[in-house]
Amino acid sequence: MPRFSGKTVIITGSSNGIGRSAALLFAQDGANVTITGRNAERLEETRQLILKSGVSESHLNSVLADVTTSGGQDLLVKSTLDKFGKIHILVNNAGAAVADATGATGTDQSIDVYHKTLQLNLQAVIEMTKKVKPHLMETKGEIVNVSSIVAGPQAQPDFMYYAIAKAALDQYTRSTAIDLIQHGIRVNSVSPGVVATGFTNAMGMPDQASQKFYNFMAAHKECIPALVAGQPEDIANIILFLADRKLSSYIIGQSIVADGGSTLVMGCQVHDIRQMMGL
Ligand code: NDP
């Protein structure tokens, strides 16, 4: 029997990248899956990808929603319960490094960018966790958060608000893990390094600049010692591992780093990201 047979999972940010890959793997492994994002075209691409892999429509719930809004969060929870009856797994994956439209960097980035960044990468996770908690208490379920290696102790002047949000998210993962394990709910997290997704596009980088960035990173061992940019499946497989109680039951409140060795060297800090992108 597929390992997630009979389980229902909500994966935020599954219209692209890591979330899309996790949604496909969960669905192929028997789960009922709620996929979601704001972009209707990309969300439909995820839905088609899953259907084409042989998964039946009855196992899929596709919801166009902004996860930073209360209405969007409520719709995700309600439509999942309406279609599947229960919730066993919440993957808080939606996230982005919001760029300042004026091109400002460092301390010059606006407070509006700060609010938007924190709202998506931290507050939406807190709100989704609160809303899904009663349903996970019923099923003794799992939460997997998607953090980032930028949460670590190194300075991140180019993405400071994003790094602040992910560092706070790591503390939230640890604290909720202890608060919720008393109810049988397990909380863990994954911290990716560089992964080739829509992440740089979402920051406003065109495809060509994004490709230059990934090529640069993969060509420099001080950036990625494994000399390869990660693929969405590299992270999605860890999400499934952390959501699988049979495999990871004794892991509580931890974040698994998957970064091709980047955090062991962190040499990329010496390079200018704009030069890497050819801008
Ligand atoms: P993508 O840009 O490919 O995917 C991000 C997903 O989040 C999309 O499905 C997007 O959907 C969704 N999203 C963004 N904002 C909202 C919103 N307001 N409401 C609903 N959905 C939203 O990036 P990744 O797959 O790389 O990102 C996934 C996670 O991985 C993020 O948390 C990111 O911080 C983290 N991460 C990524 C790294 C990388 O190098 N790629 C490195 C470290 C961490 P839509 O646009 O349709 O709204």
UniProtKB/TrEMBL annotation:
InterPro entries: NAD(P)-bd_dom_sf, Sc_DH/Rdtase_CS, SDR_fam. The keyword Oxidoreductase applies. Keywords: Oxidoreductase. GO terms for molecular function: oxidoreductase activity. The keyword Oxidoreductase applies. It holds the Pfam family adh_short_C2. It comes from the Eukaryota. This is Protein CBG12123.
